[in-house]
Amino acid sequence: MRKLSQGPGAHFRKFLQDWSIPRQIAGASLRDKAAESQTSRDLRPRLEEADRVGTSICPFCAVGCSQLIYAKDGVPIHIEGDPRSPVNQGTLCPKGGGTLGLLLSPKRVTDVLYRAPRSDKWEKKPLEWAMDRIAERVKRTRDETFVEKLPDGRTVNHTLGLGSLGGATMDNEENYLIKKLFGGGLGMLNIENQARI
């Protein structure tokens, strides 16, 4: 014969015993922990498992909200706003709150991928190879398209063969340096920032 606690109504009886509403209706108060259930008593803070906390800046826009990144065994487990920051004072917008998904997404590209002209597949390449290739192509394009003087004799020292579109996460200081390097150094005229678009 089956025990009564294991019968078909056992789950329902357990639910009623653990449910806080009947206790509160019977007059139990917060002091009696009337609103507690076994489920709520078993809950643990998700950050309790973290063995390390680091700081970062949200990657999604130019506001520069500070973040606290909690990690366990070197893997991020939670990200929240840093309350010490005068910028965001511990808050994050929905995009910033989703940073953990960006970090841990299996679709996140973490390798340099290169597709050769007319190829139908991507190849993994070392970062140093990619940086050297970009630098070589920028220099070659600048040299091939650089204009010192216009036909009327005016000095312009510019190129129309290169342009820059900065990301929205760049702050004023980074944009200043980009303008100096790309505009003053390379002679680019087409310099824009995603934050203004």
Q: Biggest β-sheet: count, sense, barrel?
A: 3 strands, antiparallel
Low-confidence stretches: none
Mean pLDDT: 87
Helix content: 25-40%
Q: What is the number of E strands?
A: 8
Could you give the order of the helices and strands? Answer: HHHEEEHHEEHEEHE
Pfam family, one: Molybdop_Fe4S4
GO molecular function, one term: electron transfer activity
InterPro entries: Mopterin_OxRdtase_4Fe-4S_dom
Subcellular location: Cell envelope
Describe this structure in words.
This protein is of the alpha+beta class. It has 3 domains: 4-42, no CATH class; 46-104, 2-Layer Sandwich (Phosphorylase Kinase, domain 1); 112-196, no CATH class. It has 7 helices and 8 strands; from the N terminus they run αααβββααββαββαβ. The protein has helices spanning 10-18, 20-25, 38-42, 94-97, 99-104, 127-145, 172-185; strands at residues 52-57, 66-72, 75-81, 112-114, 123-125, 146-149, 155-166, 188-193. The strands form 3 sheets. The protein has a 3-stranded antiparallel beta sheet with strand order 1-2-3. The chain is elongated and about 95 Å long. The model has no long low-confidence stretch (mean pLDDT 87).
